[in-house]
């Protein structure tokens, strides 16, 4: 591929960072959500943990007894723990937990941390000679939520994951920009960059229970059952509502700009059933449901996705009238529901009001602000106008290094830069807040 | 799965069949089609061969120089040749031909036969010490087109495949019930049992050429871009047109009858591009396009499918402006087009006319007819009415063993049995023809 | 790898060969062997077929009821049929036959041919709706036995494989250069080029039966349990007996000549047990035994091997006292026995006698001889001496194109060329025979 | 398999352990070793960390620039991080570190911890938009070193792994019971239970550098190049020296006791070269070397092993005269050397001296000692004799629960139990030490 022939760069062996960016981060555990999926399935517990400073997070699925698991890796850059073991087809339930997290490969620490917590807390003692080995098995995957999404590389670590695990409870799953889906986006290929999140759905058919969960962080757009793109910051001349088939048609037939799309994405998913399935059936369930997700996410499974789906059978229901293929159909529909439920309310662009910028604001706000490493923004006053420039090596959203971009007043007293994406700046308590709200980025003025 | 615990049955070691059903079959090579895809790509040649007595057939894709190939097996029962070799990631073009065939596992003979033809004809001499080994590499897959589809198990064999290979020509690909897609169906899960076939699509974007081909023999239904089921013999109270989402909703929410659906299906596909791709990119292209097919085929990749997709790069175009991910988007749209193009015109049910059956017809038609092994139909007269019974161990479409089913006159002088599916009988030259037309089954009266 | 950057060559589209080299070949079915393994296992039948003109052949293993199978592909160039299906882990016995053949990828025709024979003979009727589908499943692999091994590219084809299948009988397995192992060699990496063949071993432990079979065509040498190279045409200063560890030590520590070793090799193997094993256990058995073969073959599993091993359980014995891991140990020892049993008696070099070449022989033998396509040898008289030159584009063993090599009399009235390998020429009935004996190459004088 | 049908047990949800056994453990970083491999390869740094209280440990291999990696998973229970990603064949160097650890699945925390350290220390900033993504990629595997090996389930955790990573230095690799190999054993299948460790070997051939590393924790025995079992606590009548072939012969031909062998083992290995290799070549190197290890470890790759091998190319040397297959041969020989170098000196059994136990010792030592959770030993005096009983639910080596075993004096003033394995008890500073020395287990008397 394009980047294949790049020479491996030497790592710049900088001195050890003076401050570990993970130190002393504020945690939010089981943060309340505007929407929550409820389900009646005591064996399954869910906990979420977040670092609002990212924002990023982790979602822990814990089963109160050993369950069976299969995995289907399809994307171009999957992050996994113990995947080859899951492929071996042993007919023995062994899984305790599945952990989804942000933080790219760093977030895999959340997966191993849950196994450690099970051990440290004395719930799994490591006895491999028991009939079923009493060793905690925790598997999991991560999404890439760095890059254009936020101005730091904070990741869900051991501390956060263990806290989420210990707070896990049954019956509820928060929807939207929560847990592992805290800074997810969708539609990057087309420049949509819509906020995304985690979704879930649950249904019972006779005695058969099925739950689906997903963290949608897809290169493709989310497509509803009527063929509409569910969330997208469209380009200026794009129709609304936007039909997925029209978007694709336009994309395919148009010029193919090597645009600066988000080259790292991942959608990580879980389907759980209580119906007993043997290893081959469980694997087929994973394949069937994962494939079906190509309907709701278009495109899906690309070289820039890292899609992984886990299928779990709790083996609680030994027999049912539902053939495995139909269980797969039902689970696929629920997975579509789960994907749709992941989408949070999108912030709106704010128009410039035409008002002049108050001189106090101009004076107070000017200065340099440090977000994550390499992410600095410098705001300066030129006459009665304000300009911002990325003063580190990395862009700050629409602010590029070495280029002045003018800021304008909005109707509610904040500053904005008009463009395809919402971009609002506010000053509160000496702190610069970019895009106040769920995905806000906060920095203190540098001395 | 359900059948997993079945005890292996002993093979009934019958005496060698007196007549080899493959002997002396009439061949049709490059049979004319109502619709044909044309393309401008000299390196790629296509040949089709058919045994009308099946009907079943083979489609050979031949490349006039060695090309690169990747494979993605997703279904629950794939038939393949040399698949592990294709997974090894060697960066050397080696493929000559891809062969699709009916005949379930027996049809794999068509794949090996094309390699043999290349050898026997002196085109590949087996010299493995050449810089690029001059050994023919032919890979391929098969569809299951036995069972309810036809009343015999004739398969595309060496003779047919080699004839099709030798007749392969560039620029054209017949659409519909042709070649390997001769007896394909779709929608078996829901009882649709619509006739299907092979489809293709081709486009050029700048210098980039992309062709997609598929033999659609899917458990799921074919879904168009407006969400409609494209072909289905619906149940009596099903709406027309039928929305795929409504069908799935009804299916999921309804009772789950362990209905007698077609448990063997396969959709086998090929995407070809001239853009140079390295092994990892080619594999990702296969994955992306294969996944995208879950939009047009719902469900897809189930335990009862044997889906396989091949991705080929002819390596003719070293550079282009099209990023691999976008090439995948374009190819996915073309694959959807290809799937839609596979659907042939569906025969209609014929109403009973209410007329009495002429006594001459009653007299002439009564007797026993032998189709394939185990498939026998006995027609008998009771008063002025006609009845038919499957007199072998296997059902003959709606005619079950040991059960009399009444035949009625149609308006055009034939006989029919009312029901969900077209079922017409005609007597011509002492031969009983069931469903005269492209998929007709013919049997001579037994003495 | 080295050849990775080679440009794909254009196929020289020659006119169709005037004579198909496969036409009218003499077959040998179940040819008698000097050594034969016997076993008491009625369910398992073995048949061999050979084309002496190659020589090359096929070995068919047939099971009289459906059995379970797993596969382990390890080599750098495996040839397989239906391998992905075998990886799916379904718990249903489905296999009928395993077919090993020479002929490189062309020999895969032997595998599909056995399925066809089962169908054509009415033993498997293609009924996929039976509890266990009554469709023949034949899998198999091939060895590369072209190149330096023989002077033609004849391959085991449908006709030969079906004849071998139909002649299969239980209780016996011919050892040495028989069936698929007809032109196998070993030790090519080191220039050993020792003749090899097919081997087998059988034992019963309590009620547990284990049989192992292998066609040894390895880049590495065969190593016995005392650490000796079992067969090798050593270089002039090599010690005898030759210790494997010394050979490897010498190889590793010496210069690394990019010598003209045999770049295509394959060892294909089969382990069968009557003990019931589930899919995961069967796969582990395949892995354990295949790995163990690295003791008897050194090196093993290289980029120039195409190693494949099949593990079969006939599921006849539901319970035993033998843990699967121990079954693996026992099978591994039997596989080592099988490898050792594959080695045929090696032809000896024949010294030159110092006698003059009789003038009649000089006169009679001179002329040009055509072996397989591209393989021609021209013998010419210069004074009282005889010289031979490869007059096609390919070398004829030690005779290179465009280079005269002198022939000398042996004690028994034949001609020879001294060197590392035996090279004897004889003239019988106008035919030139190179290396009279099991691996002889025969050509008629060209007019 | 045998354990396949076991019902999943309910996890005994005990209250959270009062004391986290990982808290406040003493670390040893880069502990001095009796034997050390030295090498000249600046890009490669190695660090080890140990918790003597286990003992258990971690070995970190760090590369000072991004390198290429392939993985080969063969055993029946592999533990891995990011394995599917490594299988994708991308031609871009991305790896930073490989981490081997004890602690079974819990030890995978060591792998994710090294990625976190790279991030937290500012060496990898998470920038995925760089030409080569600047995200730390750390992969790794673990061995099972619980059960029978030691009396606790302490595992190498984040703290230990990060300390080892930060202390990593080039040029040295400690051999024997060090780092990840701290509590490894070999030969469990046959009851050998010999102490094992980590091994390494290094050589340079022209400009080509090769290093091999392995943590040998194998179900099989270690076999040297002369066919001898290198380390084994043999059964009473076993010959010394013990030939591997005789051991296997005896094992296969004897009765097959379902003995209480160590059902969890793993050998994890790494081969590194500076020669540039493409993804397919690197994968073949992994396969070839991994397969070759079946010579030194017999059996190998069983259902009770979790063998994983990583192959790394630092891509430093673009060209060499060494063909990849020969590089594989050389690396395989070095891997055998590495395996042999892993074996530490084995503690000897100590004979009973026949002396009476001093009354002070009898008095002082009696009481109950707590090792890890569930591991308690009670020593009691009966007249002038001493007896020990496992008073928790788990055995303490030869001491079984509820069964008194008599202790005897050794010549050096300690206590012992005669038997197949060394078992020595000493009392020092109120602490009971079992098997004083590198693998000692220490417990304080319970009040």
Describe the fold and architecture.
- The structure is a homotetramer of 447-residue chains.
- Chain A contains 7 helices and 24 strands.
- In chain A, 59% of the residues are buried.
- In chain A, the strands form 5 sheets. In chain A, strands 1, 3, 4, 5, 6, 7, 11, 12, 14 and 16 form a 10-stranded mixed β-sheet that branches.
- The first copy, chain A, has 2 domains: 340 residues, 4-Layer Sandwich (L-amino peptidase D-ALA esterase/amidase); 86 residues, Lipocalin (Beta Barrel), CATH 2.40.128.
- With 447 residues, chain A is α+β, with helices and mostly antiparallel strands.
- In chain A, helix 2 crosses helix 3.
- Chains A and D meet through strand 4, helix 1 and helix 2 of A and strand 4, helix 1 and helix 2 of D.
- Chains A, B, C, D: This is L-aminopeptidase/D-esterase-like protein.
- Chains A, B, C, D: Belongs to the peptidase S58 family.
- Chains A, B, C, D: Pfam families: Peptidase_S58.
- Chains A, B, C, D: InterPro entries: ArgJ-like_dom_sf, Peptidase_S58_DmpA.
Primary descriptors:
Lipocalin; alpha+beta; L-amino peptidase D-ALA esterase/amidase; about 450 residues; ArgJ-like_dom_sf (chains A, B, C, D); 10-stranded mixed sheet; 8-stranded antiparallel sheet; 7 helices; hydrolase (chains A, B, C, D); homotetramer; aminopeptidase activity (chains A, B, C, D)
